[in-house]
Amino acid sequence: MEKLQSYKSRGFQYQLGDFQLRVGKVVPSHSENLRGIVMEVEYIPISPMEKARQIMEEFVDICKKPSQKRSVPGHFLHMEPNFAEYGLLDYYTPQHTAVQYATVVPQMIATQTRRVQAARN
Fold first, then answer.
1. Name one GO molecular function term (predicted).
2. Nearest Cα to 15, choosing from 39, 37, 43, 38?
3. 74 DSSP assignment
4. Is 0.70 surpassed by the pTM of this model?
5. % residues pLDDT > 70 (the chain)
């Protein structure tokens, strides 16, 4: 059986007008080897996700621009799980955040694994 490993995310929280922004690094629980950086964006005035979607997309596009101009390694990966699969409604809750982390961390691990394998070949 494959050995399971847990991960943690530690970072900072910022308030930018009506937006709550959380940025943190993702590392294995017993190490500081960076696996990725996660950014959560919350639009505080609106909890129904469908109503906030356009505003959120515009905000993330604005955040992407500085990293694109500076040629920062890596890329933004937008993760939007099918929340209905988990019995979650359109009104955003902490359970939605948990599902997003459960989706994004395996994606980070897979991306890192592919990079390591490509470097070995």
1. transcription coactivator activity
2. 43
3. S
4. yes
5. 93
